[in-house]
Amino acid sequence: MLTRAQQRTLDFIREFFKKNQHSPTTAEVAQGIGIQSRGVVYRYLKALADANRIKLMPNRHRNIQLLNENSEFSIPLLGSIAAGHPIEAVADNEFVTVTDIFSGPHRYALRVKGDSMIEEGIWDGDLVVCEHATRAHNGQIVVALIDEQEATLKRIRYSNDNHTITLIPANPSYQPMHFPADRIRIQGIYIGLVRLAH
Fold first, then answer.
1. Domain, as residue range, for 56
2. What angle (nearest 5°) sits at the alpha carbon of residue 132, between those of residues 186 and 66?
3. Which of 71, 116, 159, 173 is catalytic?
4. What is the pLDDT tens value at each position of the chain, 198 positions in all?
5. Which helix (H) or strand (E) holds 28?
6. I want to staple 119 with a disulfide (CB 3.0 to 4.6 A). Which of 140, 154, 170, 191 is the partner?
7. Which position among 18, 154, 159, 173 bears the catalytic label?
8. Looking at the structure, do residues 95 and 35 belong to the same domain, yes or no?
9. CATH number at residue 144
10. How far, in Å, CA of 149 to CA of 184, rounded?
């Protein structure tokens, strides 16, 4: 995740690119973000390069190249919020790059239908983000295809001999389902979810 200063530097570089169709110099970045030290700017640029936001081209006066400009989306991480007892509000100086969390060549989304995973915080109507996989570790939440016909989102448990698979719901109204291993094909592993307020 980027610090606020690094994100401000990246935002300036993007705007400079849009306006001028070429990258800024280190001096222009320093002026643009309101600091005098080119050494500090260089540290910000190095951090952005390490985070794969930019590429620094050697032996060039205008040596900044933006990466993933069309696919990147970040929002400020403003701090922590209590969901139990109130806590002191302390601002963080970071940004969360949403695409780092939810995008990738092997990721996909599914809309949840039903309430069998509510105790995992997965509700009816949520969008779950999964990663394509054909194997999973004991205890992971997976997309499991049963008899090549029906798919379900459940926590997986293997028997000691791996001959039986149990698909475990997270709602006491539902019972675990037991299957011979050859009836279950794993199609993905749960990564996270998106829930929009209604």
1. 1-103
2. 170
3. 116
4. 788 889 899 989 988 888 887 889 999 999 999 998 888 999 999 999 888 888 888 877 788 888 765 555 556 555 665 555 565 655 555 556 666 666 666 778 888 999 999 999 999 988 888 888 999 999 999 999 999 988 999 999 999 998 999 999 999 999 999 999 999 999 999 988 888 776
5. helix 26-33
6. 170
7. 154
8. yes
9. 2.10.109.10
10. 10
